[in-house]
Amino acid sequence: MKNNTFLKIAVLSVFFVQMGVGTITPAIANIAAAYPDVPFTTLLLVSTLAVLMSVPATLISGRIAGTVVKYKTLLIIGMILFVGGGVAPYFMATSSFTAILAVRAIFGIGLGIVTPLGGALIIAFFDGEVRAQMMGLSNVIANVGGILFQLLGGMAAGIAWQYAFIPHALGIITLVLILFLPEPPAAPVQAVGEAKPKLPGSVFGFALAIFLIMALVYPMLVNMSTIIAVSGMGGAADAALVLTMFTVGGMAGGFIFAKVFGLFKKNTLAVGLAFLAVAMASIGLGSSIAFMYIGTTIAGIGFSFIIPTVFMDLGAAVHPSQMPTASGIIMACMNVGGFCSAYIFAFLGAITGMTENIKFPFYVSMTVFAVAAIAFLLIKPKQPDAPQPE
Question: Cβ distance 162 to 86 under 8 Å?
Fold first, then answer.
């Protein structure tokens, strides 16, 4: 079973939809034109509301997966909500903006249900080098899905704003594949009187680290077009190509992750942080668009080393029955980190007087990433072994 090609494809298909929230990003301006009376900050909820709704759904899904509700049942429910809530606005061109937000919330819940289950499935079905390979490939597939969803969303938006929601129907591919996905082996039943294993502190340490990493990386994703325009490096098309290199770098990193992890083991996290430090330095200190291309590519590689490493370490640190919960906590903190990023840097900018400097977030990020990389290399806290099934 563990070497079954279909099993690998079905598990990886769960990652294909994880970046589906970006499908309508290219259509924001078109949607704004269709609803001119809606304030722009409110209009952005068409994207951010899905992210916000995914956070509690991710935590709940991770908590009940494999115990209260079967993995397969959760995946089917999540994908039905993903496809239904994602495509629904196409049929609502004459509806109120509030109605569209309601179905976007449903879409976010579906995405949140599915998000923590991919990593947990890899840990449940695979081990050793195959597990590392699957973790790397999961990042590749997630990036491929992100590119495809956003590319099709942009092309469809060129026809009419409501067409940008149709690409969510690609989730049907994942839905069909998981219909034939076997249920992972059940976690060992806890003996009567046996103390329930607690989540190790390392889970919350990783969650905090992922929250901060995402908060520090996010300015690159949202500010790049402004940096390029203000600096006279190019226009919107150039910014789109630069940001695409983050995804390309992520795919490249995913392909080589297993080799890198085999070479550096737990130090792979420090390697990823060092890549992010170099990337932020390239963007923050660079004065030409070439540095922007280099920075985003290196950032994609570094990020693709960090996330799979965290899940590999989680698999070694927690009891098998705790993996969905741990995965849910990690993925929820990642989304919250992205959402809080703007507020964090606004606060830091206010207290340092650097609010007007558009590259200020990159100076902070490159410093924090460099210090963190050194710290992870020098500080080696001993993690307790995960409770193993007897």
Answer: no
Plot region of 109 (φ>0 → left; ψ -120 to 50 → alpha; else → beta): alpha
Both tokens assigned to 16: 């294909």
pTM: 0.76
Question: 36 and 93 in contact (C-beta within 8 Å)?
Answer: no
Burial of 70 (0-12, 13-18, 19+ CB in 10 A): middle
Instruction: For residue 253, count other CB atoms closer than 10 A to its CB.
Output: 28
| Tens-place pLDDT, residues 303-324 | 989 988 888 888 778 877 788 8
For the chain, what is the total number of helices (H) and then of strands (E)?
A: 15, 0
**Using CA atoms in the order 143, 145, 151, 157, what is the torsion angle rounded to 10 degrees?**
-130
Q: Please spell the DSSP secondary structure of 304-327, one letter per residue.
A: HHHHHHHHHHHHHHS-GGGHHHHH
Could you tell me if 358 and 228 are in contact, meaning their C-beta atoms sit under 8 angstroms apart? no
Identify the residue with better confidence: 343 or 389. Answer: 343
Cβ distance 82 to 108 under 8 Å? no
